[in-house]
Amino acid sequence: MKFGRRCGWACALSLAVAGASMAQAVVAADLSAQQVSALLKDASPSAPADLAGKDLSDLDLSRLDFRHANLRGASLFGSKLVLADFRGANLESANLNGAWLMGTDFSGANLSRASLLSVVVLGGEVKKMPIFKGANLRGVKMIADLPGADLSATDFSGAMVGVNIKNQGMGQMRTDLSNANLAGATLAGADFNRSLMAFSDLRGSNLRGANFFRVKLGGADLTGADVTDTDFSEADLDGTVFRDVKGFDAIKGLERAENVSRIVR
Question: pLDDT by residue (tens digit) across 112-126?
Answer without folding.
Answer: 999 999 999 988 889
